[in-house]
Amino acid sequence: MSFRRDKITKPIFSWARGVLPAMSDTEREALEAGDVWWDADLFTGDPDWSKLLKVPQAALTDEERAFLDGPVDELCAMLDEWKIFWEWRDLPPDVWHFVKHEKFFGMIIPKEFGGLGFSPYAHSEVVRKISTRSIAAAVTVMVPNSLGPGELLMRFGTKEQQARWLPRLADGRDIPCFGLTSPEAGSDAASMVDTGIICKGTFEDREVVGLRLNWHKRYITLGPVATLLGLAFKAYDPDHLVGDQEELGITVALIPTDLPGVEIGQRHLPSMQVFQNGPNRGRDVFIPLDYVIGGKERLGQGWKMLMTALAAGRGISLPSLSAAGAAYAARTTGAYARIREQFGISISKFEGVEEPLARIVATAYQLDAARRLTCAALNAGVHPAVISGIMKLHATDRMRTAIDDAMDIHGGKAVIDGPQNYLGNLHRAVPVGITVEGANILTRNLIVFGQGAIRAHPYLLDEMNALADIDRERGLTAFDKAFWKHVGHSVRTLFRAFGRSWTFGAFAMAPDAGDATPFYRQLSRYSAAFALCADMALLTLGGALKRREMLSARFGDILSELYLLSAALKRWQDEGRQKEDFAALEWCMATGFKTIENRLAEILANLPNRFVAGFLKFLVQPFGARVLGPSDRVVHQCAAIVLEPSAARERLTPDLAHVDDDGGFARLERAFLLVVSTDAIAKRMRAAHIRDWKEAVTKGVITQVEGEQLAAAREAVTKVIEVDDFAPEALSPIYKKSGDVHQFFQELGEQRAAS
């Protein structure tokens, strides 16, 4: 052992220490935040599918279900998104009162502090349902239960802080927000210039050691109405009042917004969304040290605290909203395609419509599968950092595609705004989800694989820690142990990837999963190919891989697909292998396999070491990228899921906010059911080449009752395809004085002629 370490490992160790890039404290803290989970199994190249299938399904308790069917439904009935958006520019006072009274802001706060003590899955389900009724309300509810004072206090607060603040947050006496983003520092939080100087000052008529804060934050959701601000800043101790170190690092503290020097209340208008969002400033705001979350001992630990909390929050709120958006798009677009006719036939019969409709359906299936699987991990106490990044990135990005497809199929119906437009505001809101909680470009190019390669790899983090050990001998011993395990792992992965690639996964490990068994074999094949290529890229590029963002993004795409496809398989298994849903699963698999094979081909085409690239191509992709995506048959069957009332349609779009009113969504649902129920009647009329139902009754083609049913269906369709129009003075104050737009322009013309 000592011979291997001293004669073989030591030169490698010395070389690796020399080329290992320096890692900043913020980078290390981000890497160490959260947990690894199924992503680590995928990185082994040989995932244990039995482990995945044994994960308990996320489920609601009776109390959580009662809340969803009670207060959540009541809230949805109170919401009028058009008035919220166009008239009030805010949630109305009765809604604010209701969400406080019913403790929507305290869903994640334990019951001992007056909260509801709900599971992450319940939090997700609540956000999901409200999202299908009002984006503004959903964001308002999700933020206090995600990254913010409540989450941070629960994880890191002192007992005194928890006892003081959590009950107030739970019952709505305090409205929280969290200030992280600065004009100078968006994704690069380490560049923030917000400061907290440790000094002595007067607080509540007593002299204490505290922090004098100066900051400028923006894009802060709930900021304009918050009474308690969680603030991230850099702490400094120039007079060494708490220790020898002067620069303490990023710190988080609680700031009551009524303190002198706090400037808050101005609003942003993000993509025309009217949830409360705005900037705030602090000028020489003094707080005692016990307002630092976790107390004095947590000075300088803020970044790690934030990354740990974000590892959970990113996996719930925006993925829930995105899954809701995709399901909502599937239900509404399927119904609209079924009832809308062009050239005398339903547009759902056009293959050009079927293709994007199938994409919407499969996206809804996959996003909700991934949401449930991620919530199952969170329910078990796991905080999967890499998976949360995957979820935020791909949920919001795929929702964007689904909503774009829905807009295309709806055409003018979704373009013309008004109370009857049930899609337009969701379409406008998409860029917000893409941008917040880590911009998607950054997440894809730097985080998913950059963090995943280190955290989820079986040995890489151990090797890096050994190389960074200040005790060289101890580091060498640890490196020797990890490195040779890594070598053995790589050799096994090489032969595994080679065998599975050349046999197209025919003998790869897979559970007995009925019709889905071949999909498991392919994922096992791709997992091995991914693990081998990742190892070779890390070996040949080392720290330079960090700067090869396009390569990193492609590896990240493969890891993401492996996770999302695993989730889809898990869902199909958990729901009892429903044959009616199999087309959606097939679409997901074919599309995911195509992405994986294309990304592998792109990696091999761009890997700088061409000898290694050629060798890898021979091993893992000898026949090139061969998967073409879903077949026309699969597309047709997948689209059909939402074109008829069925159990499959309900499984795909459960718990949407159905409100029995005269809104656009309710009109669409009624028309859809009427059209489907009268389909046989309409077919008899078409066969007789008759359009007038009264003529059809007279000629005995249909009965009077059938004719009246058909008339009711046609009337319902007419109401759906109508779009809103407005009096000119309702849209512009220019016309309010004259009251007649024609008179206004006539007078304008006369004035111009006279001049």
Distance between the termini: 101 Å
User: Over all CA atoms, what is the radius of gyration?
Assistant: 29 Å
Helix content: 55-70%
By DSSP, the count of extended strands is 9
Structural class: alpha+beta
Report the sheet-strand fraction: 5-15%
Overall, the morphology is: globular
Main sheet specs: 7 strands, mixed
Segments where pLDDT lies below 50 for 5+ residues? none
Mean pLDDT across the residues is 91
Number of helices: 32
Give a structural overview:
With 755 residues, the protein is α+β, with helices and mostly antiparallel strands. The strands form 2 sheets. Strands 1, 2, 3, 4, 5, 6 and 7 form a 7-stranded mixed sheet that branches. A two-stranded antiparallel ribbon has the order 8-9. The model has no long low-confidence stretch (mean pLDDT 91).
Short structural description:
Belongs to the acyl-CoA dehydrogenase family. The protein has 755 residues and is an alpha+beta fold. The model has no long low-confidence stretch (mean pLDDT 91).
Q: Which features does this protein show?
A:
globular, 32 helices, 755 residues, oxidoreductase, AcylCoA_DH/ox_N, two-stranded antiparallel sheet, alpha+beta, 9 strands
Topology:
Elements lengths: L1 H18 L5 H8 L5 H6 L5 H5 L8 H17 L2 H8 L4 H9 L18 H12 L3 H8 L6 H8 L2 H12 L5 E4 L15 E9 L2 E16 L6 E9 L10 E10 L5 E3 L12 E12 L13 H12 L3 H23 L1 E2 L2 E2 L4 H29 L5 H26 L1 H4 L8 H12 L4 H16 L4 H9 L3 H31 L14 H25 L7 H26 L7 H25 L3 H11 L11 H9 L6 H6 L11 H14 L1 H9 L5 H6 L5 H18 L6 H4 L9 H14 L1
Parallel strand pairs: 1-4, 2-4
Antiparallel strand pairs: 2-3, 3-7, 4-5, 6-7, 8-9
Pathway: Lipid metabolism; fatty acid beta-oxidation
Enzyme class: oxidoreductase
Cofactor: FAD
